[in-house]
Design goal:
By secondary structure, this protein is α+β, with helices and mostly antiparallel strands. The protein is built from three helices and four strands; from the N terminus they run ββββααα. The longest helix is centred in the C-terminal third of the chain and has 15 residues.
Amino acid sequence: MSRICELTGKGRQVGHNVSHANNKTKRVFLPNLQNVTLMSEKLDRSFKFRVSTHGLRSVEHNGGLDNWLLKQSDVKLSSRALKVKRDLVKAVAA
């Protein structure tokens, strides 16, 4: 399973470990991913996502999963999140 947030697209970053002698070795910075269940009020369902803690805070700041998905571009979303967004757009239009 890839280490990418399903809502924000945040993934791993590469950097250096730097020793006291200024030796540099490659290392990886991984996002803090959590398995969460988010509730959609308009669809009246809950969905399980693997989300970074930064993404979870962003969802809560925007007023929930529905508002977040409607504002977010399709490029960063995972295929599962895109399916939820399509269902949400249909529900809002109806």
